[in-house]
Amino acid sequence: MQLDLTDPAFLTDPDETLSRLRAEGGLVRTRIPLIGQVWLTTTDAGARALLKSPDLFVRDFGTVGGKPLSAKFWWLPGFMKPLLAGILGQDGADHTRLRGMVDSAFARSSIDDLRPKLRSIADTLLDSADPAKPCDIVSRYARPLPLTAICTLLGVPEEDQGKVAHWVSPVSGPVTPWGIARALPGLWRLTRYFRADFSAQRAAPRPGLIGDLVQVRDGTDRLSDDELLAMVVVLFIAGHETTVHLISNALHRVLQDDALRQGLIAAPETVGLLVEEVLRHDSPVMMTKPLFATRDTTFEGQALKAGDQVAALLIGANHDPARHSEPAAFTADRRPNAHLGFGTGPHVCLGMQLARAEAQVAITTLLDRYPQAQLDGAAQRLRRVGLNGFSKLPVRLAPK
Predict the structure, then answer these.
(1) Which of 35, 269, 327, 386 has a 20 to 30 A CA-CA distance from 74?
(2) DSSP 288-326
């Protein structure tokens, strides 16, 4: 089946298409740009089974006799090659080892300690906006907030955060050959910056996750420079990019629904439930990275060959009527809400507590400061395969 995950009609109202997918079976085959032929789960049960079967499905094609990522992406410049060996592409003990070194920094208790700083970042961003003029809330608020937050968590000095943000900004563009080429100069500067910082922090570590990782030991283990680079760049990019779309989706919901806005103003403690429903209904991350079947098998009624690509269609799971009552409805106070917005299994999103906190703080701070803020013009949908959000969201903070 042909499935265009960037079609604005699908993103606005995905349920008819998702229903047709489920009618075809628990696993359907399609072609996705830059990925190729891939099987997609269509149900909540199928997505969970896929993501919780690390013996049957792996992330590293090289472990099942295929080409490793470094061979598949042979055309990438040399400075990018270490990034292909990052935590997102590891399995088993290698993944467990790397993840264990950063888990504590992203634990709920650590993120709760960061909330006052998140509020300060949000306030500073709103201070710089002219409430009398319309602004794009994505570029002025939804994007810089998580970007500044991950810089703070990593320990990037404030005086360097502006240039670091500038270097990484093209990564948010379209995933096309031209888009990749446009992103490479900034990524080169980013990798040079971090490698120099590793050396500096070995001599004089600063507070922050980079300093912790430079010094970390797991028994007698220490991260190599290539492992450090892969870890930090992945955390930096993944740690802010998808959260931008969670925040933009949430603000779009709140600012177009006066009853929802007034409910949050009256009971700000309910913002957590709202964020969970945005994660479910709007699914900022609509699908996982493809996994590879480790052997010939039958999964969700389909015969698979070793090496076949299979991905969890998270938006399909999140709109599955077998799991969620009235899945097409946006229910801000939905309980229970066992969505897969962050995935599940060994690769469940490391930064999920940070993303939740950033979205909650972004919403409540904006409503505290500008309770009458409203949409002011046509929103532009993001056109990125697998992501659901807005590239532009015009807002007037203080309507006339």
Answers:
(1) 386
(2) PPPEEESSSEEETTEEE-TT-EEE-BHHHHHT-TTTSSS
Rounded to whole angstroms, how far apart are CA atoms 242 and 330? Answer: 20
Residue 1 belongs to some domain of the structure? no
Beta bridge partners of 114: none
Q: Which residues in 182-204 are b (16+ Cβ under 10 Å) and which e?
A: ebeebbebbbeebbebbeebeee
**Model confidence over 336-358: pLDDT tens digits?**
999 999 999 999 999 999 999 99
3-state class (DSSP) for residue 244: helix
DSSP H stretches of helix in 267-323: 271-281, 314-318
What is the domain extent for residue 220?
A: 8-398
Q: How far is CA 399 from the centre of its chain?
A: 32
Q: Which two tokens stand for residue 220?
A: 């007698």
Q: What is the DSSP letter of 140?
A: I
User: Any idea what DSSP says for residue 235?
Assistant: H
Q: What is the pLDDT of residue 168?
A: 87
CB atoms within 10 A of CB 265: 13
Closest Cα partner for 53 from 373, 249, 312, 246? 312
Tens of pLDDT, residues 282-310: 999 999 999 999 999 999 999 999 999 99
Q: Which residues contact 25 (CB under 8 A, 6 or more apart)?
A: 42, 300, 301, 302
Beta strands at 374-375 and 297-299: parallel, antiparallel or unpaired: unpaired
- Name residue 300's amino acid: E
- Is residue 272 in some structural domain? yes
Give the CATH number, domain containing residue 340.
1.10.630.10
What does the pLDDT look like over 27-60, one tens digit per residue?
999 998 878 899 999 999 999 999 999 999 999 8
Separation CA 65–CA 121 (nearest Å): 47
Residue 155 to residue 195: CA distance in whole angstroms: 14
Coil, strand or helix at 71: helix
> Is residue 361 in a domain?
yes
Check: pTM over 0.85? Answer yes or no: yes
Asked, for residue 3, whether it belongs to a domain, the answer is no
Residue where the block lists tokens 């061979």? 71
Contacts (Cβ under 8 Å, ≥6 apart) of 13: none
